[in-house]
């Protein structure tokens, strides 16, 4: 398994818009490029951090090189509109190969959290 970690600062008041677009975009990226999904976190200073899992680095690289474009302009526009800041060049802050995975996984729990 391979992971990529990204971050975004969001315009105040657009957090829900960002989260909804992120969830839809994640679903579309999973369908089109074969990702395993993602988690979205919020750090103490309000920055959103996404942790995306992929079956391997080659699958992630193929999607990244295509800028993970998907056919839903409204979702993409909502996502971009909500963003105030990203890292330079919009590259992930980390890319890593998983060596040991002890996370407990629950689809129902993940779905409940995504709608919270």
From TrEMBL:
Keyword Electron transport: no
ABM domain: residues covered: 1-64
Domain of life: Bacteria
Keyword rRNA-binding: no
Keywords assigned: Monooxygenase, Oxidoreductase
Pfam family of the protein (one): ABM
MF term (GO), any: monooxygenase activity
InterPro entries tied to this protein: ABM_dom, Dimeric_a/b-barrel
SUPFAM superfamilies reported in the protein's UniProt record: Dimeric alpha+beta barrel
UniProt name for this protein: Antibiotic biosynthesis monooxygenase
Source organism (scientific name): Sphingobium lactosutens DS20
